[in-house]
Amino acid sequence: MNKLYQKMYSKKLFTLDNCLKIIKDKQVCLNTLTRLVNKGLLKRLRNSIYHIVPLDDPDFEPEPLHIATLLRKDASISINSSLQAQGLFYDKTIYLYSKHSAKIRINDITYRILKNRHNSGIKKHELKTSYGIYEISITDNERTLIDCIRTRSIKLEELVKIFRNPKIEIDIGKIINYLEKYRKPILYNKTGLVLDACKNFLRLQDDDLGKIRQKLSKKIFYAREKGLTLIRPKYKYYGKWNMMINEDLYDMIVPKTNI
After folding, report:
1. Could you give the C-alpha distances from 4 to 10, 38, 62, 71, 194, in angstroms and in order?
2. Are residues 44 and 85 in the same domain?
3. What is the pLDDT of residues 144-180, one digit of tens each?
4. Which of 100, 110, 133, 175 is most buried, judged by most C-beta within 10 A?
5. Rounded Cα distance, 145 and 191, in Å
6. Residue 165 belongs to what domain range?
7. How far is the C-alpha of 67 from the C-alpha of 44, rounded, in Å?
8. Quick one: 151 and 134 in the same domain?
9. Of the candidates 103, 124, 113, 120, which has an alpha carbon nearest to the alpha carbon of residue 75?
């Protein structure tokens, strides 16, 4: 059995740089990789990213989030993909932060690499796969929440459902810090609304939410969602956070009163 194949077998997913530590000569290394790909022992995902085709599992595919971390050396899993890394969400679009933006398609997964606006809010996380545990970088829950709202990658009612989870912890100090960095007034309204709808699960106090309310402007914002139009009566006014929100979200978070 080829030495390179043997060395990479337990690793499963690897890069050209990993291989060059075994075969020092780059051309010889590339020739070896090409030969193994042609024999069906390896699969090339990108020019410098490969995975083993196990002898006992020819249909093997590595974890998409693991692949994402190899697309850029400085990559951080972000937005709703950070929730996916924690088992809280799933989507066939993987979001990453890096120095340079790009859009990459591998198999049936789209990798959206977005330019990182600021470096705060990144933490280490253990990604568990069927072939091992890997330390990856993801955005923390506070930045993830705000970035999901900012990019509208998840509807607000979905975010409410996800964050109504007592296992999730939120630091209001971090929330305020990130909101100040983005400098978008509507984010205060939307973030406050979601946290308010989840406060009993997140163990937040009214004083915590008051810190966000202090930052609200007098402007009434529409909580626009992708795929929805601004045609009434799809939207209702929610005075507590000075927003027009869609009916589904309104019915979800506003207590019904008996008449």
Report:
1. 11, 15, 18, 21, 50
2. no
3. 999 999 999 999 999 999 999 999 999 999 999 999 9
4. 175
5. 8
6. 143-253
7. 12
8. no
9. 113
**Dist CA 227 CA 88 (whole Å):** 23
**What's this model's pTM, rounded to 2 decimal places?**
0.90
Same-domain pairing of 198 and 217: yes
Taking residues 27-52, report their average pLDDT.
Answer: 95
195-198 long-range Cβ contacts below 8 angstroms, 24+ apart:
195/145, 195/163, 195/170, 196/240, 196/241, 196/253, 197/160, 197/164, 197/252, 197/253, 198/160, 198/163, 198/164
CA gap 208, 170 in Å, rounded: 10
Written as six digits, the tokens of 111 are: 């990798």
The distance of Cα 214 from the centroid of its chain, to the nearest Å, equals 29
- State the total domains in the chain: 3
CATH number (domain holding residue 33): 1.10.10
Q: Any residues with CB less than 8 A from the CB of 28 and at least 6 apart, and which?
A: none
- Location of structure tokens 């930052």: 215
Q: Which residue has the tokens 């869609």?
A: 246
